[in-house]
Amino acid sequence: VLVAIGRDACTRNIGLETIGVKINEKNGKVPVNDEEQTNVPYVYAIGDILDGKLELTPVAIQAGRLLAQRLYGGSSRKCDYINVPTTVFTPLEYGCCGFPEEKAIEEYGKQNVEVYHSLFWPLEWTVPGRDNNTCYAKIICNKQDNNRVIGLHVLGPNAGEVTQGFAAAIKCGLTKELLDETIGIHPTCAEVFTTMNITKASGQDITQKGC
Fold it and tell me: Which of 12, 15, 151, 207 fits 99 for a cystine, CB–CB 3.0-4.6 Å?
């Protein structure tokens, strides 16, 4: 049984209506623009309270830091809410950064999106004889932008560690060509991202026989 309680936005009794700050009446969250500014120009909101944004502590910290720098330090840098590395710490970890496949298609159009994927077998699974094809990796590329990687997903051991490293590369404009040119560390789970050659559209078999 997976219990996902979530969080409530406790905004209805703090006086926002007095100064005219609008909230999403369905969930109590606060809509903002790309600079965390509400409909009232001198009121800003950051963190889990934002409507349609990620409920992650590091995101709130980064958004707050960047907001302070814009307001008082002359900066113009905005928080990137798309390329956020995230992990679900289930017994088999899941990590992601960037767009999910469906959102990428919605944003760029199906004809402009290429998806590469593969199942893989971690070396440490050979001795206990675990299933060859439980772990999965996928990258989503924008064909109109030099096959830039706009989404990365991995299901396997230490997915959080893998995702954190690739997140920096994605922020730097990682492309499929750069991944192909990168020498993998054998045998690691992350190596799978340097050897992908099967597209989802091809329908080819991605099952693995060994590590």
Answer: 151
Which residue of the set 186, 197, 201, 202 is catalytic?
A: 186
SS3 content of the chain, % helix, strand, coil (to 5): 30, 20, 50
Q: What is the pLDDT of residues 72-118, one digit of tens each?
A: 999 999 999 999 999 999 999 999 999 999 999 999 999 999 999 99
Range of the domain at 26: 16-73
Residue 210 maps to a domain: no
Distance CA 87, CA 94 (A): 6
Q: In DSSP terms, which residues pair with 155 in a beta bridge?
A: 94, 136
Torsion sign over Cα 152, 170, 37, 69: positive
What is the value of pTM for the model shown? 0.88
